[in-house]
Hints:
single chain, mainly beta, five-stranded antiparallel beta sheet, four-stranded antiparallel beta sheet, 11 strands
Amino acid sequence: MSFNFTAPFIASSGILGSNHVIRLAVVGMSLENLSVAIPSQMERYDSIQVLNQAGQTIPAKIAANKTQVNITFDKPVTAGNYVQVLFTGVEMRGGGGDTLFYGVTAERSGIKGQIPVGTARIHIPSRS
């Protein structure tokens, strides 16, 4: 079985220390912006970084509130690249063992309005 992706998709998601990482593959058309829904279990985070596949910062404007992060790229991210959204210094409610769901939508060049990209899933280990 082979897949031929024609729209952006979540390539991976996970934890690096106290950071949460969501990695998107940009396929089909360029991306102009992203929106990421913040899980209710997240107490706080220190910052949000937007990186390319080489770990370099992608210039973007980031606006966030308690429920959502909106990322508008200074220049559209072209197809064939990856975008990593890094939440640094994440603190959670509770003792762990939860699975967090980050809903991701995007606006592609040439198509007005947000399209669903998918749901990034991050499992928080128990602290026992």
